[in-house]
Specification:
39% helix; 838 residues; rod-shaped; 4 domains; alpha/beta; Rossmann fold
Length: 838
Amino acid sequence: MVYVVLMLAVLLPPWAICNVPTIKWNTNHHHPILYKYYQAGDLIIGGIISQIYMFSRKITFETSPSCELFGDPIQYSASGTCLASMELLSTWGKFLPNYKCDSKNNLVAVTGGPNFDICLYMAAILHTYKIPQFPYGSAPVLNSKTHGDFFYSMFPDWNLQYKGILQLLLLFNWTWIGVLYLNDNNGERFVQDVLPTFLHWGICFDFIRSVPPETFPDDIAEVTEETLKMFTVILGSTGTAVVVHGEIHTMIILRLLLQVPESEDIPMKSKSKVWIMTAQIDLLSFAFQRNWDIQHLHGAISFAVQSKEPLGFWRFLHTRNPTSVKEDNFLRVFWEQAFLCSFLSSTGNSGSPQICTGQEKLEALPMSVFELSMTSHSYSIYNVIYAVAQSLHAMNSFKSRHQGMMATESWKFLNIQPWQLHHILRRISFNNGVEENISFGQNGKSVAGFDIINWVTFPNQSFLRVQVGKMDPNAPPDQMFTTHEDAIAWPSWFNQTQPLSLCNKKCLLGYHKVKKEGRPFCCYDCRRCPQGKISNQENMDGCFQCPEGQYPNNKQDFCIPKKISFLSYEEPLGISLASSALLFSFVIVLMLGTFIKHQDTPIVKANNLTLTYGLLISLLLSFLCIFLFIGQPGKMTCLLRQTVFGIVFSVAVSCVLAKTVIVVLAFIATKPGSRMRNWLGKQLAFSIVFSCSFTQTIICTVWLVIFPPFPDFDTHSMAEEIILECNEGSVIMFYSVLGYMGLLTIISFIMAFLARKLPDSFNEAKFITFSMLVFCSVWLTFIPAYLSAKGKYVVAVEIFSILTSSCGLLGFIFSPKCYIILARPQLNTKEQLMRKKD
């Protein structure tokens, strides 16, 4: 016969802790049997899982007197576990290491746990004999070339659980957390190797504190002292989420921690914590913790190895009692400890005042003492039994075919060596009876995932494990982690709203994070975004510019499309400028008509009628060219705008210059003996106007050919507007046009200024001087105003300068003549013009 050994070096009930190395299951005993019967080539697993559940989940049992119940000390010693491992290699009931004469009890596999150190200690002995070992709790990290080759861990890949914890923290944006870890090899590996990776995902740690591994009553004073220190740390913590990494008995420390406020009458800030526990942790306690409230665990989130409940488990569990299985000594001891009673024949608990009847109901026990549902640890052992049974069945079937075993022959195991199972176990894949496929990966780990469990507690010490998500290693990467956030019951402290676990409040929209000196990067101040930038999400590291064509709103939390802006005829400014241009154009037309009507009068003929008409027409065109600046810029208007303005104004200034030259020459020519009369005439005036205007035309032509202006968008000058404008193409050419026009103006001003004292009868230079003074003043102030203006006001400044300078010429040169023609016709005579100055 063969048997499987369950290593229970630490199986912690909620009311007692014992360290029992082994329990042997043998087909010749009434204890849970490995195989119920073999018939017609089918291997049927009997109803043994319920007792495995009791063994692995609630209590330990050992025939030796070294184990004591009710919270007496247990020894997590390597020597005890090694001793138990060597007993497995001895004859049943006799301790003769490495000597076995019992041919009926053949050891083929061992399952151990739930603590990793037990697996490590038993591996030191059993790996020599190549015996398959199935840790159902957290397994140690072993050398794959020695110990690890014989390990088949029922606990899934550690990294999968750590990824799940990280994804959970990121899902709820818990970036400021506390960490409690058991100070053992697995805990140190978690702190040194795993927690640094959390930093890369923006998660910081308010505290990282180890919990003492010794959790036995002899050390209760030391444990309590350490617990008070931990409570002080947690009390001062501002983080809400606390990750607890440990083994099954870490729950004892956690329950001590949660009991501190009750015993010390301290307002419990730790009520506001969300506990995130690893899959190794389960609900258990010391004997004196049996009746402690578990409400503080409400809303906790834990990971658990994926599990299902076998069909018929509930019914079978309710049929188990000490009277129905009299030979099961373990069940009697469990019964006494669970129901706080004693059997009359019992000596282990004779002091109990209550007598056990054996008919007590398991469902009457608080769930904190005994759970009727199958837990993940129990489910792992269930799968161990199935894996070994399937392997033995496969091996037996193979040998039966090759050794001619008859199907009708009574089934018995052939001489099977444990090492022979490894080849099958590495490749085995089977359905475990609850529609779940079980297999081991190349590294000997169970290819399984984790359930994400939400703890829901009730005042009567009952609780529910509600599955709210899972980590499935076989799913696509984007579906490996799934949760149902709406199904999570949060601690009552948070009024069923998702808690926040941040170092400080989130930065609102329109603000950005600024690092605090001397603090982790999760702690920061919030500052308003700089002018012109926005932040449209909470907790942004920095603000950013709006895209082209948009601008920030007042709160700086989103961008608004900019309005298209240009100087149009629909707005008051455009209307007033256009109306002014039309008005002055009409005035010039009237003046031109007046001069034509009175062209034979002395005052009209006095200073070159052609220049007068040329100047009036150029001023008329200068007023009309304003309409090239108003309205939406187009390709043609941009090409003509500055060039037409420059040429027209050059003609106007050239006419003024010609008038000034003629005035000076006319005065000189009246002197006796002067030969200047030969220079006077229309050819001189035409030459001056043509040469000066032609030069400006050449400049404008070069500009249009090499660097032509074009329509453009200005998105930067105005915060809330996109300016449609004409890009000048070449700033140098633009200022060359203005500079040449300014040069002509200065020359005209100088000549007129020098001729201002000529006799009145011949003098128009005084009026030209004033007009040129206005003209120069306007265009000198135009440059700084043009450079400082923005948007459509740049165009408005230029239009205003054109209007003002044109009005200056019109007013100072032609207004006096119109006044004489219309209001003082008696002065419009040749005698008056020839009158000498007094």
